[in-house]
Amino acid sequence: MSRSWHRVDDEILSVLQDVVAIESINPDLPGGKDGELRMMEYISGFFANIGIPYETHEILPARHNIIATLDGEDPNRVLLFECHMDTVSVDIMTIPPFTPDIRNGLLYGRGACDTKAGGVAMMMAMKRLKEEGFTPPCTIKYAGVVDEEHLFRGASHLASIIGAEAVVVSEPTELEIVRTHKGLARFRIIVKGTAAHSSKPHLGINAITKMARLICAIEDEIVPIYNTNTHPLVGSPTLNIGVISGGAQINFVPDQCVIEIDRRTIPGENPIETIEIFQQILSREQDSDPDLDVILEEPFLLDEAM
């Protein structure tokens, strides 16, 4: 592996540097290409070198979960270590994303915290047990899964094939025990307009300006309602309009605008029911504006709070 960074002597940190240097952006996110392929190859080599057997499961084309097994005294009891191998995009990072430098005791790079550090800690714990010849009282399994940053398809498959007495998930929590977490509903709203030349905008219907009014209505009306509903551990529900796209070029009246909304739910909320208030606002706005053509698509991801 060619590199432009200095490898430290500490074995655990040097392995972390290796995996942070691997680009594993989820292919469904900006900049993603090969996904978790090189991570899976690195991790499989790691376990092969220390004599811990592993298996892979193809979840999506060329995207595999990897499961390594350290047998324990009781094979019917399993402690599962779980982490995900994919990362989010690097588009807005201000440092080199795959140069794992250590400064002031901290290692920097995409995925260092979420969740490559936790995954490496799990791998190294199993390596130490293997090297010391220690047989744990229960079987320990390590699972590196794909697609956590998009649709959770790796974790969903893992849950369907493995039962465990306990699971340690490597999401960063500052070593605090997490007893609950938010769920979500992710969906798109699409406004259709009519294209025209910008010299005669009155001949068209501008989908972007129509969407802008909807965004203001959503944030002005829905967010205050969320702030009145608070869970003692995870706080209030939230919404984030994380993606907006529309228009073809500057001198065209845009005939379409799309937003993607991430609506985080708290325990007690049904994710699909949280969409209703959005539809109510869209329907009301349509009633008052005959030129507004808007569709709220079915959610592409739903997940219950726990």
TrEMBL record:
Q: Which InterPro entries match?
A: Bact_exopeptidase_dim_dom (IPR036264), Peptidase_M20_dimer (IPR011650), Peptidase_M20A (IPR050072), Peptidase_M28 (IPR007484)
Q: Does the keyword Zinc apply?
A: yes
Work out whether the entry's keyword set contains Chloroplast.
no
- Domain (Peptidase M28): residue spans on this chain: 65-160
Cofactor dependence: Zn(2+)
Cite the entry's keywords alphabetically. Answer: Hydrolase, Metal-binding, Zinc
| One Gene Ontology MF term | metal ion binding
Q: Where is the Peptidase M20 dimerisation domain?
A: 180-287
What Gene3D superfamilies does UniProt report for this protein, alphabetically? 3.30.70.360, Zn peptidases
Family, according to the entry, reads as follows: Belongs to the peptidase M20A family.
Identify this protein by name.
Answer: Uncharacterized protein
